[in-house]
Amino acid sequence: MKTAFIALLSLSSAFAFTIPSSQQASTARPFSAVATEEATPATSSKTGKEISAATAGQQVIYTSEQIDELLPHRYPFALVDKVVEYEAGKRAVGIKSVTKNEEFFNGHFPGRPIMPGVLQVEALAQLAGIVCLQMDGASPGAVFFFAGVDGVKWKKPVVPGDSLVMEVEIKKWNAKFGLAKASGRAYVDGTLVVEVGEMTFALAK
Known about the structure:
Blueprint: H1 2-16, H2 21-27, H3 31-39, H4 48-53, H5 64-70, E1 82-87, E2 91-97, H6 117-132, E3 144-154, E4 163-174, E5 179-188, E6 191-203
Antiparallel strand pairs: 1-2, 2-4, 3-6, 4-5, 5-6
């Protein structure tokens, strides 16, 4: 009698924790279906041609080769790849494509490459130099020195794969003494990463 009671109790417990087969079929999902749902992007994908076409209308004012004719800087310290906006004596917009092959990433930092902030400022200075070295009293290819930097603020790290879009504006130019003042900003994907309130340059004598 006791054995029969235990068997009946075990059978009742089994029924209590068993999901009917019809309910199992409606709730269970194959792993492949779940994986597909997680892998499917929420937005529609674009082709490489469509992404490339987004910059099709962007005019290049100065190519890398033409910049070499204006600036004395060379590898590994040439930090402006092209100029896409230019107003003589006033302003310019240039681009630096940051790749993992940059020399400075070997030590800054191993395992977490970040473009040094001082080189971001240097890139802005070189862009300003492209404007200044074409103004009265200067000549393309001349060497110019940093004389001062004020109001520098870094907002976000610049890493391999980023396109650093830089903009500079010439605030003052003294042809007699070869002195220039400029401000600058740089962006990655539309986000401000660095801004410089004032940069001062002096032409080498």
